[in-house]
Amino acid sequence: MNRVTIAKRFTSTAVKTTHAPLSAAQAAYLERVIRVDQAGELGADLIYAGQYLALSHNKKVKPVIKHMWEQEVVHRTTFNELQVQHRVRPSILTPIWKVGAFGLGFATGFMNKEAAMACTEAVETVIGSHYNQQLRVLSNNFGDIKELDTGKYTDSKEVTNLKNTIMKFRDEELEHLDTAIKNDSHNARPYWLLTETIKGIVKGAVFTAERI
Ligand SMILES: [Fe+2]
Ligand SMILES: [Fe+2]
Predict the structure, then answer these.
(1) What whole-number distance in Å separates Cα of residue 76 and Cα of residue 44?
(2) What whole-number distance in Å separates Cα of residue 159 and Cα of residue 189?
(3) pLDDT per residue over 88-108, tens digit each?
(4) How far is the CA of 85 from the centre of ligand 1 (A)?
(5) Which residues bind Fe cation 1 (predicted)?
(6) Is the entire prediction scored with pTM above 0.85?
(7) Which residues contact 20 (CB under 8 A, 6 or more apart)?
(8) What spacing in Å lies between the alpha carbon of 168 and ligand 2's midpoint?
(9) How far does the centroid of ligand 2 lie from the alpha carbon of residue 68, in Å?
(10) What percent of the chain shows pLDDT beyond 90?
(11) Cα–Cα separations (whole angstroms), residue 31 to 28, 37, 183
C-alpha cells in the first residue's frame, strides 16, 4: 500500500473529519497505533479470560480478575470500532496473539494466583509505558493539522479523541498493575524470571504487531 492510499484512508468518508488531510507519515502512524492497540487489547482480554478460567475455583481472586477483564473488554471493543471506522486491517498474526494470550493467562493462573498477578504486573508495566510513548508522539507530532472551519492549526478533534481514549486506558492499565501488586504478585516464584520473561514476550508482540 502506498503512502497516498494510507493518507487517504485517514481522511476518507468512513470518519467525518473536520481537518485538512494528514501527512502520509501522520496517517501511517495513526494506522500503526490502531493496529497495535487493537491487537494488544485483544491479547489483554484473552489473558484475563485464561486467568479467570484457571482460577475459577478461587472465590477471593475471581472478582478481582473479573473486574479487570471487564475493563479489557471495553478497551478491546473501542479499538475494534476504531479499526472499522478507519479501515485499518488487523495484525495478520491475530490468530497467534489469541492462542498465545489465552495460553499465557491460563498457564500463569494454573500455576497459582501469585503467578497470575505477576503476569498482570509484567503485562501492564509494558503496556502502560507503550501507551505513554504513543501519547508523547501524538502530543508532539500532531499539532500542525489545519482545521477546516477555523483555519487554525491544532491537533484536530480526531487526534484529541484518540489521545483521550489512550489516556483513559493507560490509567486503567496502571490500576491493574497496582491491583496485581496488592494481590501478591511479588510473592510469585520465580518472580524475576517470570516477570522479565513475560515483559520480553509482550515487548516482542508489540514490536511485531506494529509492523505486521
Ligand atoms: Fe487494556
Ligand atoms: Fe489492563
Answers:
(1) 8
(2) 42
(3) 999 999 999 999 999 999 999
(4) 20
(5) 41, 72, 75, 173
(6) yes
(7) 145, 146, 148
(8) 11
(9) 7
(10) 73
(11) 5, 10, 36
